[in-house]
From TrEMBL:
Source organism per UniProt: Channa striata
Alphabetized UniProt keyword annotations: Cell membrane, G-protein coupled receptor, Membrane, Receptor, Transducer, Transmembrane, Transmembrane helix
Residue ranges constituting the G-protein coupled receptors family 1 profile domain according to the UniProt record: 48-327
Protein name: G-protein coupled receptors family 1 profile domain-containing protein
InterPro entries linked: GPCR_Rhodpsn, GPCR_Rhodpsn_7TM
Cross-referenced SMART domains: 7TM_GPCR_Srsx (SM01381)
Compartmental location: Cell membrane
Taxonomic path: Eukaryota, Metazoa, Chordata, Craniata, Vertebrata
């Protein structure tokens, strides 16, 4: 999200266009290799999130509370890929060529959009938590109006937060690139240097609070899944007791049904664990290194390597490219739609055919099952 210099700066200078440091990478071959490594991140983010937005706009069956947050997440990740990543890519590989004003604008877009993406992930966890752990109150707590308010907050709060940081002197009014006492216009780098309070505040608000809530919500969902598994086991135990008074034919039939139920229950429980583990694992792996370094860096006198900071930033960007594939993978409606679009392909465009949206049923939240975790 932010690039931070290796050398310390004054307290009143937080965002600068600087040319005093050398480029991170030297040599054409090295830069091409780094480009090939980083370029797929914005490309996949654009394609994946564009699919989510197009599918939601095309099929009304996807207009559900869950998908409202998924679409909002897709919009945020798409904008990160379009408005932030390309310029960060140029800066990371070579230098900053876009001037002082856009350096500040890039900083604001970066903070706002990445934080909005994380907040939307938190709202998805909130919606799943209510749907599974409190289904009776779901219609009231996740009404269209409240969902719209939550989506709005996911965008307004990051914008307000980043604006407050700017108004409190997050960066200088007219940053310049100075080398040996003279201003230099080439080989610049857009740098964001946080003071200790800002570094801690941005990390806590943008990441650690949402991460803590997501761990709580998905932990509760996992416990609800385990509770349901124990409930199924209790029913199976009762079935075994009833089998003692049945005829041999009925007893064999009951055992066959019991074995099927046990396999089905075990399969669903494993799917729930895999879903929750993958969602949280990807989120934490992508963002934890950057936000941890973002707090540690000013405390250690800005001594962490710029290369390490840049790598952690791109690892966080990777979350925007993984989110659409992750949520499509575990969402039955999106998964069926994606397969249908692949099956249709050129034939649909040539013959003017369309995919029947009735194939994709609406999601319901009144019945709590392990399958609802991944919806």
């Amino acid at each position: 999200m932010f690039s931070i210099p290796e050398t310390n700066t004054s307290d009143n200078q937080s965002l600068t266009v600087d040319s005093s440091g050398s480029a991170l990478f030297h040599g054409t071959i090295v830069k091409v290799c780094v480009l090939c490594l980083l370029l797929p991140i914005p490309v996949f983010a654009i394609l994946g999130n564009l699919f989510i937005m197009a599918a939601a706009a095309r099929f009304q069956s996807l207009w559900t509370p869950t998908n409202a947050f998924v679409v909002s997440l897709a919009v945020a990740d798409f904008l990160v890929a379009v408005l932030v990543m390309p310029f960060s890519l140029v800066r990371s590989i070579d230098s900053w060529y876009f001037g002082d004003c856009f350096c500040r604008a890039h900083f604001l877009l970066d903070v706002t959009l990445c934080t909005s993406s994380i907040f939307n992930l938190g709202c998805i966890a909130l919606e799943r938590y209510i749907a599974i752990c409190d289904p009776l109150h779901y219609p009231a707590r996740m009404s269209p109006r409240r969902v719209a308010m939550l989506v709005l907050l996911c965008w307004v709060l990051p914008l307000v937060f980043s604006s407050i940081c700017v108004s409190l002197g997050m960066y200088t009014e007219s940053p310049t690139a100075v080398l040996n006492g003279s201003t230099k216009q080439d080989a610049q780098t857009c740098l964001a240097t946080f003071q200790v309070p800002y570094g801690v505040a941005t990390s806590v608000i943008s990441f650690f609070i949402p991460m803590g809530f997501m761990l709580f919500a998905y932990g509760k969902i996992f416990m609800a899944a385990q509770k349901q598994a124990r409930w199924i086991q209790a029913i199976e135990h009762r079935t075994q007791q009833l089998q003692m008074n049945q005829s041999p034919v009925r007893r064999n039939s009951a055992r066959h049904v019991q074995a099927h139920v046990e396999r089905f229950s075990l399969k669903k429980e494993r799917k729930a664990v895999k879903t929750l583990g993958l969602i949280m694992g990807v989120f934490v792996v992508c963002w934890l290194p950057f936000f941890s370094l973002n707090m540690i860096h000013p405390l250690k006198g800005y001594s962490i390597s710029s290369l390490v900071m840049e790598a952690s930033m791109w690892l966080g960007y990777a979350n925007s490219s993984l989110n659409p594939f992750l949520y499509v993978l575990f969402n039955k409606n999106y998964r069926h739609l994606f397969v249908a679009m692949l099956d249709c392909g050129i034939l649909c465009r040539t013959l003017g055919l369309s995919i029947n949206s009735s194939r994709f049923g609406r999601q319901t939240h009144t019945v709590v099952t392990l399958e609802t975790i991944s919806r």
